[in-house]
Amino acid sequence: ADDEVLAVHEALEALAEVDARLVRVVEMRYFAGLTDPEIGAVLGVTDRTVRRDWERARLLLAQMLAR
Questions:
Q1: pLDDT tier for residue 33 given thresholds of 50, 70 and 90
Q2: Segment (H or E) for 8
Q3: How far is C-alpha 6 from the geometric centre of its chain's CA atoms?
C-alpha cells in the first residue's frame, strides 16, 4: 500500500509539471469531494472545463501509473 501511495504522489508531481490546474482538479474532486461546479468556482473556470481537465488528468495519471 505504501508503494501505491508513493506512486500516486509521484504521478501527481509529474502531472503538475504538465499542467498544475489538472492536479488541483484531482485534489479537489478526489480528495476533497467537491463537485464540478464547486471546483469551477474555485478555479474560475466553467464546470465543462473542470470535466475536461478531470478526464485529461485521469488519462495522464493512468498512463503514468501503468509504467
A1: very high
A2: helix 2-18
A3: 16
In degrees rounded to 5, what are phi and psi of residue 26?
A: -60, -45
Specify the pLDDT at position 5.
86
Put residue 33 in one of left, alpha, beta given phi > 0 → left and psi -120 to 50 → alpha. Answer: left
Which amino acid type is present at position 49? Answer: T
How far is residue 15's CA from residue 49's CA, in Å, rounded to a whole number? Answer: 17
CB 50 within 8 A of CB 36: yes
Distance CA 57, CA 31 (A): 14
Place of cell 468556482: 41
Q: What is the pTM of this model?
A: 0.87
Residue 33: in which H helix or E strand, if any? Answer: none
The grid coordinates listed for 5 are: 501511495
